[in-house]
Amino acid sequence: MTIIKQDDLIQSVADALQFISYYHPKDYIKALGEAYDREESPAAKDAMAQILVNSRMCAEDQRPICQDTGLVVVFLKIGMDVQWDAKLSIEEMVNEGVRQAYQYPDNILRASIVSDPLGARKNTGDNTPAVVHMSVVPGNTVEVQVAAKGGGSENKAKFVMLNPSDSIVDWVLKTVPTMGAGWCPPGMLGIGVGGSAEKAMLLAKESLMEPINIHELIERGPSTRAEEIRLELFEKVNALGIGAQGLGGLTTILDLKINDVPTHAASLPVAMIPNCAATRHAHFTLDGSGPAHLEPPKLEDWPDITYEVAEGTKRVNLDTVTQEEMESWKPGDRLLLSGHMLTGRDAAHKKLTDMINKGESLPEGVSFEGRFIYYVGPVDPVRDEVVGPAGPTTATRMDKFTETMLAETGLMGMIGKAERGPVAIESIKKHKSVYLIAVGGAAYLVSKAIRSSKIIAFEELGMEAIREFEIEDMPVIVAVDHTGDSVHKTGPREWQQKIGKIPVVVE
């Protein structure tokens, strides 16, 4: 009989969450480095360089890879011969570990969880509760898998009930392009097949805990139908040409996993969940000897890559930028931004548009006239930081607010990540605005361009408050120009055609 102490599970969960906040899995770094070497798209290669440099910086300084430090998901396999020396339930122990990890003063992690999801949506303040899955298995140990899942990738989860004769390959190839770039490729796709609806989703999520090893499968060849489909989809999804950050390129996914279980004869449940460029998970076993120990990667595990300003990059002063200058930018142009910008995301946009629709004045000190807004919810600063990791959030969530913001506030342009939908693009075209993107998965690198930060409105919203940033040389790419032309359409189409394995559908 193994005795597992309450404090050992709490400490192990807390340590693991801190660990994965700043250490990429070694297999991910290796796979992304190899993809970087192969990449031929300049825009995608630039994005990969930022992700790799950001990753190494985070490992050195022990700060979060991404500003979205994730919804915590924990899988526990509890041995039948385990006895607990604990007063708390297992879920309570896990949540105490989450609480300690996210409030650790030397590396504060962003609290993103809101309670009363259909009502007040109030931040719980400590990122609890976690999502906990438990199973009881033979043995005398507790195996634990801990993951932190960002909202941008989790929001792109897909599920379908196919007919047994339908093609999973066809469904995946039809569905992946609809996911856009908000899940921050290059990452991994997890696919669950069989069981029931909820079982398929769970299988997909569990598959994302597995190491990247597609090239081992390529070398040895498939031995099951699932492995055959895995290889076929790995090649064909990359042939879509979506590329890093959706900019077009050779690598969209670094691996693809398929977990399958028996299902009803009349059913074929299929779930697909992506893991983003900030993939974060850790695995440990408790055997009664104390808290788990995770071995950190070595700095030499990162490829020797530096982020250099590309030739032709334009420097832009946001305090003096003109409409004429803005209209000279084309999709794919690289810019370095300096000056002042405001921040705001979902909750702030909802409050602002409600005030505008009611004919109320905006909060004191808030003026968007001739200014840019950055869609971001940063991590709190530590030590001498002016702000913590501050990468972009998915811009499509702000699409429904775009027309009001551009028509009523004098807003000049927007900065976020991934594509914009047709409603937002039409507004951008109508008002001759622009939309720029920063690289998702490079939050700490981006934060180094921020020279000052102050909250100017909606402080009660926490990470969603409106801030004013002063920035210097913040790297961005023009995603949608003043005519409504989008790099997220032209880039993947161009690279899908260059790769030439899948027919290009002309819209």
How would you describe this protein?
The chain is an alpha/beta fold and 507 residues long. The chain has 3 domains: 1-150 and 282-288 and 298-307, no CATH class; 151-277, 2-Layer Sandwich (60s Ribosomal Protein L30, Chain: A), CATH 3.30.1330; 314-492, Alpha-Beta Barrel (fumarase). It has 15 helices and 19 strands. The chain has helices at 6-22, 26-38, 42-61, 90-102, 151-154, 168-175, 197-207, 214-220, 225-239, 323-326, 346-357, 399-408, 422-431, 443-447, 487-499, and strands at residues 2-5, 71-79, 82-85, 114-115, 122-123, 131-137, 142-149, 158-162, 187-195, 253-263, 268-275, 281-286, 314-317, 334-343, 372-374, 413-416, 434-437, 450-457, 466-480. A 5-stranded mixed beta barrel has the order 14-15-16-17-19. Strands 6-2-7-12 form a 4-stranded mixed sheet. Strand 16, helix 13 (422-431) and strand 17 (434-437) form a beta-alpha-beta unit. Helix 1 crosses helix 4 (90-102) and helix 2 runs antiparallel to helix 3. It is globular, with a radius of gyration of 23 Å. The mean pLDDT is 96.
Q: Write down the CATH class of the largest domain.
A: Alpha Beta
Report the helical percentage: 25-40%
Report the CATH architecture of the largest domain. Answer: Alpha-Beta Barrel
Question: How would you characterize the largest beta sheet?
Answer: 5 strands, mixed, barrel
